[in-house]
């Protein structure tokens, strides 16, 4: 089945399945994934309990552990995999980027991609240059990889590479894909908290989708109401 550490974790999640919650959780995710029916607070408590008993996984075994969890049909296993990566975030390096790419491309949906992008891929790029991966992803045919590149700077604030952000957006500003239009707006909204004038100027001068504009201007409009 895979790495023993992951097998133990899957067993814990299986033992705590909740049929009453399962259907609602599967419906919320448009029935794309199976669920154990374990809500976030309970899952977090189980993860704390598991980590207390088993310790954090060794970094050198992390890839195999994550892959074992990612292969499971229940969505909580993917969430658990991301939690384990978060716990070792300081130890993640460029060597983990192929794993993150694999995660983005498989069992893809906003709930996993939107965590991987800023909290894992973005964090690695902050420490080590990951230009080659970011450029590869923004040019890929898969829109989830495009979204990952667009969103990787969400946490950067004043460290945001503005030219990269705007360039990546303009590479996809004509996309009809909802998740790309939404990502563009989200990235602009976050950056507007650091540099509202640059974002306003960019939105006014470029031909963005109405959804992207609306999302991108949300924070700026809130600031205007306060004034």
From TrEMBL:
Pfam family, one: DNA_alkylation
InterPro entries: ARM-type_fold (IPR016024), DNA_alkylation (IPR014825)
Ranges in coiled-coil conformation: none
Superkingdom, natural source: Bacteria
Family annotation (SUPFAM superfamilies): ARM repeat (SSF48371)
Residues of the signal peptide: none
Protein's UniProt name: 3-methyladenine DNA glycosylase AlkD
